Amino acid sequence: MDHETESSAPVVSNRVMEIVVAGLFALFSIIVMMDSARVGAGWASDGPEAGYFPFYVGLIMLVSALAIMGTAIFRQTNADSGTFVEKHQLALVLQVLVPSSVFVALVSFLGIYVAAAIFIAFFMYWVGKYPVQKIVPVAVGVPVALFVAFEIWFLVPLPKGPVEAMLGF
């Protein structure tokens, strides 16, 4: 199999994604409608209850989602659907999504500043192919600048980890 053909192989079609996204919107709409009904979605003596407008917005969203889902499901052919994402495109997205997810998880253990330093260094090395002498100043300098800006100037505390505790912050 040709490498170009293999890397541009479709992973998922537009039709499948339309069905999935419409299903998620329908689920979200049902949650909105149920919560609106819980707080009151009717009309009281003094006007609409707290959930009145959110309930009807949720209802409109649900009807729209079901219409989109029905159109996608009952479409005669998948050929005119097109490709939503190809293999190489998905690989590029995952190349950013996976490390970003690891970064978010590390924030709770290491704090935002150390996690940001690791994240920046990793991306500069892996994706940017920068040499270490350029990576270290940027990976250390950016979190230090963020610390100064948020913690000292704006007085906005961000999640800190064991390194900041060791340094007395």
Could you please describe the fold and organization of this structure?
With 169 residues, the chain is mostly helical. It has two domains: 75 residues; 79 residues, no CATH class. The strands form two sheets. The chain has a two-stranded antiparallel sheet with strand order 1-4. Strands 2-3 form a two-stranded antiparallel sheet. A hairpin with a 2-residue loop joins strand 2 and strand 3. The longest helix is centred in the first third of the chain and has 26 residues. The chain is flat and about 60 Å long. The mean pLDDT is 91.
Low-confidence stretches: none
What coarse outline follows from CA principal-axis ratios? flat
What does the radius of gyration come to? 24 Å
Please report the total strand number as a whole number.
Answer: 4
Quick check: average pLDDT?
A: 91
Structural class based on helices, strands and sheet pairing: mainly alpha
Q: Give the helix level as a range of percent.
A: over 70%
Q: Quickly count the domains.
A: 2
Strand arrangement, largest sheet? 1-4
Describe the main β-sheet briefly.
Answer: 2 strands, antiparallel
State the separation between the terminal residues, measured CA to CA: 57 Å
Beta fraction of the residues? 5-15%
Number of helices: 7
Index terms:
169 residues; mainly alpha; 2 domains; two-stranded antiparallel ribbon
